[in-house]
Amino acid sequence: MKRLFDRERDAREQELLALQVEATRGRILIEESREIVVVLDDQDRVVTASRRAWESLEGLREGAPIPDGLLRAEGTPAVVRVPVEVDGRHETLVYMNEPGELAAYEELRAGFTAAVSHELR
Asked: Per CATH, the architecture of 33-120 is what?
């Protein structure tokens, strides 16, 4: 009987450890992202953010509402909101990129494609 309880306890401990590893991995992915990423709760309060978000966005504070106008002000980064549900809680992943970033990437990609195409002829 004791072995059964020990196995159940071991299984729960392994499951808890796996969840802790996943949580740590998720936190690191957000924090170390090169993108501007902000996680908001259902009241638009900041849950966490990437390092780049902390460095780039003025007035961003954990637990505080996202600063007024930050997500829609003229000249601010382009914004994509992705609603998610985490353990019954509704949160939003907010991805931002500087207005010129995508254009610069597309220009680089087009130039590379043209160069490769020319070399293959």
From this structure: 2-Layer Sandwich (3.30)
